[in-house]
User: Fold this.
Amino acid sequence: MPEQRATAIAHPNIALIKYWGNRDHALRLPANSSLSMNLAALATTTTVEFRSDLDADSVTIDDAEATASARERVSTHLDRVRALASIQRKASVISRNNFPAGTGLASSASAFAALTVAACAAAGLQLSTDALSRLARRGSGSACRSVPGGFVLWDACGADAGGEDNCSFGRTIAPPDHWDLRNVVAIVESAHKAAGSTEGHAIAETSPFQAVRVASTPERLERCRAAILARDFPALADVIEQDALAMHAVMMTGTPSLLYWRPATLAVMQAVRAWRAEGLAVAFTIDAGPNVHCICPAESSTQVKHLIRAIPGVERIFTSGVGGGSYLLA
Ligand code: PMV
Assistant:
């Protein structure tokens, strides 16, 4: 039996047009298409080894045994890989994040992208980037955007496309060096988030605004794609703030209501708008948490960092450029 072991590296991504809500929860088919950029400075490294001496999967994350629920989610994903490869062996999974501890930046996107790429290679499967992305999506929706590199569009592949499972995956629309954007993350709370995104996606449809948000996403996505391709920062700034706020409007108005913002979240948002009005190129986006991701061209990033550090309530900041796709370590 050849060795069934492989190691993969994946970067998390920040969505510029958000994925929020599924039209099929089991398949993680999204309610709308989304667009993101990978984050070069953050990485998850995962080693998967299928072994004959194990009678259960073992999962270690950042040198600690994974919780039962995390292990179950990983095992379910490994089952998908085992089914494709027709193997039965259980696996040992060892995963490490380079994210500084306590930043609240832990990411299921890089986790499931790295797990998918490592597990498929360890199982002897040779899948295309598209197929790996499609498979990673089943583990965590946004993980499909961390498989290809740079600026990535995840097509919802909706009813007008036949609703096929097999066309919903991430594709690169521009490589990392297309535009030197930075994400300066203002960490306002490092604690683990109150409601995870899997739970959040299920709540999305309870908001009366979700249908409106989903219906209006193609227009924003098109504006965002055009702004990226033309490197038009003012256009990008407008559309990413609108889109993040549309998602948070849905979060706030669902049952139960998800209100992720802290006072410092709003302080950073207001400051970003004021700086932009004064001519500084910077815009915010916010995921399912209180931290504010300040997107800016490389030229503005030194000033953006300096200004954000001075805002009361900002515990620390973290900066990243645009990253590449997932890859195997030789
Ligand atoms: O992939 P998930 O299930 O963790 O969902 C990600 C949800 C957001 O981060 C809020 C938005 C996005 O598109 O990444």
DSSP finds eight helices and 16 strands in the chain. The two ends are 20 Å apart (CA to CA). The first strand starts at residue 5 and ends at 10. Residues 210-230 form the longest helix (21 residues).
